[in-house]
Amino acid sequence: MASSMRSLFSDHSRYVESFRRFLQSSTEHQCMQEFLDKKLPGIIASIGDSKSEIKILSIGGGAGEIDLQILSKVQAQHPGVCIHNEVVEPSSDQIAKYKELVAKKSNLENIKFAWHKETSSEYQNRVVERKELQKWDFIHMIQMLYYVKDIPATLKFFHSILATKAKILIIVVSGTSGWDKLWKKYGSRLPRDDLCQYVTSSDLTQILDNLGIKYDCYDLPSTMDISDCFVDGNENGDLLWDFLTETCNFNTTAPPRLKAEIMKDLNEPEFSIKKDGKVLFNNNLSFIVIEA
Ligand SMILES: C[S@@+](CC[C@H](N)C(=O)[O-])C[C@H]1O[C@@H](n2cnc3c(N)ncnc32)[C@H](O)[C@@H]1O
């Protein structure tokens, strides 16, 4: 029975739809927005160090929605300064969406964009082999380190290419989130592929401590409304189950005992809170800021 379960990532269109439902049901983007509005201006105040151009590297920038928000904060903090924004993103689909967004948006005149269709390790290998190493003023890795195989080597490399007063911003799920508990308790019974790994801020801060890299870590609350997961035959609930378990068609392929166990836990206070008749899964996010 368990062998019929397969990773959600093996069906790209189902993954994209379940991710869309996750964004609709969660406060993920509102939580990021709050951080960008309240904390980011202070964090980026000293980057660039009175240079005439600020260089930003976006790793796994996706379709660019969050990237453009970051760029507008940098513009506001450093008025009139030119910005050079390079994006490392393996999905051509995402790059196309990013370019569409840039084409539609106004007030980007002082920003030069470049996209590289490659993974972070392909980028690293290319610039090292061709001796094209540059220094960057701000590097961000937002909800993407799950897809990186060698996280310590990646963090060490990107830290080594920071300019003076530069910073790295990482966003991942928090070690206090329901994800941490779900992955620790059920990870070994859910289908895995080598595309994605379970990583939270607790793992990352341990890696950074081992590397001797200094950082600040901020946690912000976020929730995901999983009430539909408890309604039989609910299409939205099915897609959210898939996202939670990273399993394609979890509801129809999972062993009933496994589903019953997870369902019971999702109601427990370490995983979710109950509010206004809804079950809200703990989707807390961590924002890790690393200095040069
Ligand atoms: C969950 S999305 C986050 C997108 C964007 N940063 C955001 O927060 O809106 C993860 C992104 O990482 C990209 N990605 C996956 N593996 C990667 C890798 N090894 N290196 C760089 N980017 C990767 C994916 O294509 C996807 O666009």
Question: What does this protein structure show overall?
Answer:
The structure is a single chain. The protein is of the alpha/beta class and 292 residues long. The chain has a single domain (6-291), classed as Vaccinia Virus protein VP39 (Rossmann fold, 3-Layer(aba) Sandwich). The protein has helices at residues 12-25, 28-38, 40-44, 65-77, 92-104, 120-129, 151-160, 178-186, 201-211, 235-245, 250-253, 256-266, and strands at 6-7, 53-59, 82-88, 111-116, 136-142, 162-173, 215-220, 223-225, 247-248, 272-275, 278-282, 285-291. Strands 4-3-2-5-6-12-7 form a seven-stranded mixed β-sheet, with helices on both faces. It has a three-stranded antiparallel β-sheet with strand order 8-11-10. Strands 1-9 form a two-stranded antiparallel ribbon. Helix 1 (12-25) packs across helix 10 (235-245), helix 2 (28-38) packs parallel to helix 4 (65-77) and helix 7 (151-160) crosses helix 9 (201-211). Bound molecules: S-adenosylmethionine. The site of S-adenosylmethionine (SAM) has 18 residues, from helix 4.
